[in-house]
Amino acid sequence: GGLWIARDYPLGTAARMSAGYMPRLLCIALALLGAFILARGLTVDGAPLGRIRLRPVLLIPAAVAAFALTIQNLGLLAATLLITLLGSYATPLARLPEVLLTAAVLAVLAVAIFVWGIGLLIPIWPEL
């Protein structure tokens, strides 16, 4: 899907990357990783998986969707806190103090890396 969406983006070169370079590179890397995991899963014997737990299957994509839907309006800090908190409920082993500390550290790191380090134009705070 990502390769199809990025099909018309200009590619550029490794020295002068254009808008389509990284999406294509990431899609190809994900496709190769998926093919490797699929081949390994089909060829290696092991115990059956057992029942599939719906909690992580639903909460992880919901956390990613919540991040995508809130980053522009709530800012990077709040969206990062939200994805971490929602994602942590995918496991019953998560403890709130640890989750809050992890969320705070990840939010500060996200701002430091993406806004201050790389200079992306992502709002840090909610738009008022």
Considering the chains and any ligands shown, give keywords for the structure.
128 residues; mainly alpha; 65% helix
Span between N and C termini?
34 Å
- Mean model confidence by pLDDT: 91
Biggest sheet details: none
What count of helical segments does DSSP give? 5
- Rounded radius of gyration (Å): 18 Å
Coarse morphology: flat
Describe the structure.
It is a single chain. The chain has 5 helices and no strands. The longest helix has 23 residues, at 21-43. α3 (54-74) packs antiparallel against α4 and α4 (76-88) packs antiparallel against α5. It has helices spanning 2-5, 21-43, 54-74, 76-88, 96-117. With 128 residues, it is an all-alpha fold.
Helices and strands, with pairings:
Blueprint: H1 2-5, H2 21-43, H3 54-74, H4 76-88, H5 96-117
Please provide a brief summary of the model.
This protein is mainly alpha-helical and 128 residues long.
